[in-house]
Amino acid sequence: MDKFLDKFIDLFKWPIAFYMLLSTPALCSSFQFFKVVNMSALSLFIGLVFFVFSKVMMDPSVRTSMQVIAHELTHTFFAFLTFHKVSNIRIHPDDTGGEMVFKGKGNWLIIIAPYFFPLFCLIYMCLMNFLPSQFVFHFILGYFLGYHIDTVCSQIHPEQTDLQKVGYIFCFMFLPGINLLTIGSILAFNLKGLQGIKDYFLLVNKINIDYVFYLKELILSLL
């Protein structure tokens, strides 16, 4: 099962990369969706700011250890998600990184997942579905959002072996768009829950279609 799934996922590597690249302008424009100012948005922003202050106060070795743990757990989550048996997870004692070993060849999604997927945010968002909408819950989501952005930004660099495995060209095409989509989805969830995510995806799709028609008219006018 895992071999078939790996081959199936690998088929979509470049089509998804092209889609995310072409969708990047629409994703940037889509942030107009979040101009709504309400208590949930305010509390999320305060939680994000609190993360920035706590990061400054936090011991660098502790912050690095937390990032490495999140990184390896995200690899592990996607390995399980694509039916791979994980045999070992190891964190280097000197905080230089970690290692997750699984059975089978694997796929690009397992490799690239920590550079866009907010595992801790997802877990917390699942819990929020069963919690009343209160200031403190949105504040905590803002903290996790800040943690996710900081972790991703600190781990995307040319020496990163995972990025070398999937290819720098792929990373250039895929990572900016998918990270904008991830952050936008979290902000949309904070405003309206699962319905917010649905509305956000519909908005991105609409902007994409509008851009296609605009480019079509532009090309026709030049002919």
Structure, explained:
The protein is mostly helical and 223 residues long. The chain has one domain (2-12, 35-193). It contains 9 helices and 2 strands. The chain has a two-stranded antiparallel ribbon with strand order 1-2. A hairpin with a 6-residue loop joins strand 1 and strand 2 (98-102). Helix 6 (119-128) runs antiparallel to helix 7. It starts with a helix and ends with a helix. The mean pLDDT is 87.
Helix and strand topology:
Elements: H1 2-11, H2 13-29, H3 39-57, H4 60-81, E1 86-91, E2 98-102, H5 108-112, H6 119-128, H7 135-155, H8 161-166, H9 168-222
Antiparallel strand pairs: 1-2
Outline of this structure?
The chain is mainly alpha-helical.
| Structure classification | mainly alpha
Extended strand count: 2
Largest sheet: 2 strands, antiparallel
Helix content: over 70%
- How many domain modules? 1
Low-confidence stretches: none
What is the overall shape?
A: globular
Number of helical regions:
9
Looking at this protein, list some descriptive labels.
2 strands, mainly alpha, two-stranded antiparallel sheet, 223 residues, single chain
